[in-house]
Amino acid sequence: MRYIDEFRQPELIRGLAEELRKTITRPWTIMEICGGQTHAFMRFGLDTLLPPQIELVHGPGCPVCVTPLELIDKAIAIASRPEVIFCSFGDMLRVPGSHSDLFRVKAAGGDVRVVYSPLECLKLAREHPDRQIVFFAIGFETTAPGNAMLVWQAREQGITNLSLLVSHVRVPPAITAILSSPGNQVQGFLAAGHVCTVMGYWEYEPLAERFKVPIVVTGFEPADLLRGLLMAVRQLEEGRHEVENAYGRSVRREGNRAAQELIARVFEPCDRAWRGIGVIPDSGWRLRPEFAEFDAEKRFALDDIHTRESSVCISGLILQGRKKPYECPAFGTECTPMHPLGATMVSSEGACAAYYRYGRSAGKQANGE
Q1: Which residues does 94 contact at the CB level (< 8 Å), separation at least 6?
Q2: Contact, 200 vs 258, CB < 8 A?
Q3: Same structural domain for residues 161 and 79?
Q4: At 342, is the secondary structure helix, strand, or coil?
Q5: Is 109 left (phi over 0), alpha (psi -120 to 50) or beta?
């Protein structure tokens, strides 16, 4: 298939890997922001092709993983109400809250439904006027336009029995927080192509200049990732710090202006708590005051939520790129995809899930070892 097979050709992949080995002269630590990129590196075995001087660390770009525990507990509380039809993407259902998860709510009789588009909630709201339809609106900038469209259309259609539990997060403030951390070791970034398809990469240019780090926009196929990594290494070796686009077939500097305008009409920036990390200023979106009627946190009384994180899970350190999953004492034993302690093990984009699925451990690391 065009746009798939041509980016997976073995000779192309080997050539890019060889070019990396010829280019690099010293150790560099590079973070792939997106959990989808983490999984792709391991699924295709790309991490085993890299020269030993490259240290890949895994960033907080998994929206399921960074959704704060308090919101998970609020989702569970709302979904447990008999008048509610609670809608979510499937990967949120097994994310552990303090004492339960959405799957257990469903098993106990709660009306929890998996949807594949937020706009499915409009149909449910019309079909069930006596029920409250609540959509768990999580995600980075990639999912924000669809969620904004849901709210916009609900208002235009006069639908009053629909609300959103919003947990949107933004990439640039997360990069700022990582680079501002006293213990930061990251020297370059691979930015997520799907986020930049929506937002462009103009927001990254001030960050590259301020922190003197290269940022390369990449896709998710093997050639995309290795080409992006090669571009980042070339910048580091040459002492440059620019934003480059290795995903030109999808991303433009300005992004999708129509999508950005829709987001701005419905959402406004806010401080946001990230699970395992803490509050990052200006890193989220919330509904604007004129759309407050669609805010599930305002619609339901949820003041008695008390959270409790696992005392063993180190997912926060993993999301910051400070630890690898196999460094967690519970990895693969007490914590598995069937019995996760943290979201990084259950999410389809979580780093722990990737290490578990593809057999990466302290004794089976990248670079051909």
Answers
A1: 101, 102, 103, 340, 346
A2: no
A3: yes
A4: coil
A5: left
pLDDT reported for residue 366: 46
> Is residue 61 scored above 90 in pLDDT?
no
Rounded CA-CA distance 91/22 in Å is 40
Structure tokens at 22: 């010829």
Residue 92 lies in a domain: yes
Rounded Cα distance between 98 and 72, Å, is 8
Looking up tokens 């993407």, which residue turns up? 89
Q: Are residues 158 and 283 in the same domain?
A: yes
Q: How far apart are the first and last CA of the chain?
A: 32
The H or E element that residue 224 is part of is helix 222-238
Domain membership flag for residue 250: no
DSSP H or E run through 285: strand 278-287
- Domain housing 344: 315-357
pTM attached to this predicted model: 0.88
Residue 339 above 90 pLDDT?
Answer: no
Average pLDDT rounded to a whole number, residues 26-49: 91
Q: Is pLDDT of 313 > 60?
A: yes
Separation CA 279–CA 201 (nearest Å):
24
